[in-house]
Design brief:
- With about 260 residues, the chain is mainly alpha-helical.
- The protein has 2 domains: about 45 residues, no CATH class; about 200 residues, no CATH class.
- Helix content is about 55%, strand content about 5%.
- The protein is built from 9 helices and 6 strands.
- A two-stranded antiparallel sheet has the order 1-4. It has a two-stranded antiparallel sheet with strand order 2-3. It has a two-stranded antiparallel ribbon with strand order 5-6.
- A hairpin with a 6-residue loop joins strand 5 and strand 6.
- The termini are far apart.
């Protein structure tokens, strides 16, 4: 039996040389990571955390662009009498991924707020999880974290209910038989999810996620914890280019521009 080099048998991961802090990553020094000696202090350990909210918005926009391309190609194929089955499959898959990414943005934002607000408030929300649907728990956490009022909370709940209906259809798919549904663009019968996950629906779901990435942090955050204020500032700064892309490509993002002093939100 050939002998193996000692380096090959080593199982400990290599020690990184330096640390790269990517966008959305926070770094902290745990209590055990700072060693204070007589002459100097030394950092021996750090911890990293990723807030992936913006990444999921970008993923949603990327797949929405692919769904839009397939949607346009379907219209051309239908007009010229060419086969559209492959294009329909592309639009469906891209729309599913855009829809799931839009919902995951809200999941990531929910997670980002959990350690930025007082634990007593989050524990009351988490303690009621058996009696609340997922979208309702997320809506309540975001309401509390960003200080939404009655009108804004109702709007958020309505949007999340719609977003999570699509998300659940995607991540918990049924395999039961059902009647065909008329495809809105092709005017032929299809399995209902091929009509449900199309470009038009995906566009509205992604728009909802992107819109609330602007509406929520635009609230007056002056009375919120510093960590929440920093998160709000980060969201508005990093998402600003995405708002520009949306306006140029798809039209208006918001029906009404949110302001930090709008008491109706």
């Amino acid at each position: 039996m050939p002998q193996m080099d000692a380096d090959v048998l080593q199982t400990d991961p290599p020690t990184p040389v330096g640390i790269h802090i990517s966008r959305g990553v926070r770094m902290r020094i745990p209590p055990s990571g700072l060693v204070i000696g007589e002459t100097r202090a030394e950092i021996t350990r750090v911890e990293l955390q990723l807030d992936s909210c913006v990444h999921w918005l970008e993923i949603a926009l990327e797949h929405l662009a692919a769904a839009r391309s397939a949607h346009s190609a379907i219209a051309e194929a239908k007009q010229s009498g060419n086969d559209f089955s492959g294009l329909l499959d592309r639009e469906f898959k891209s729309s599913v991924q855009a829809a799931v990414a839009a919902a995951t943005f809200f999941e990531a934002l929910y997670a980002a707020t959990l350690d930025r607000v007082p634990k007593k408030q989050t524990s009351s929300i988490l303690g009621n999880r058996r009696r609340r649907s997922r979208y309702a728990r997320i809506a309540e956490q975001l309401r509390m974290s960003f200080g939404l009022r009655k009108h804004g909370t109702a709007s958020l709940r309505r949007v999340l209910r719609h977003v999570y209906m699509f998300r659940d259809e995607a991540v918990h798919p049924s395999s039961t038989f059902g009647e065909p549904v008329l495809h809105p663009q092709l005017q032929v019968g299809v399995e209902r999810r091929f009509a449900m996950f199309d470009y038009d629906n995906a566009r509205e779901l992604v728009r909802a996620a992107l819109a609330f990435s602007k509406i929520l942090p635009s609230r007056d955050m002056s009375e919120k914890p510093k960590a929440m204020q920093e998160l709000a500032t980060y969201l508005l700064e990093v998402c600003a280019p995405l708002y520009v892309v949306w306006e140029k490509t798809y039209g208006a993002l918001l029906d009404e521009v949110p302001t930090a002093t709008n008491d109706n939100v």
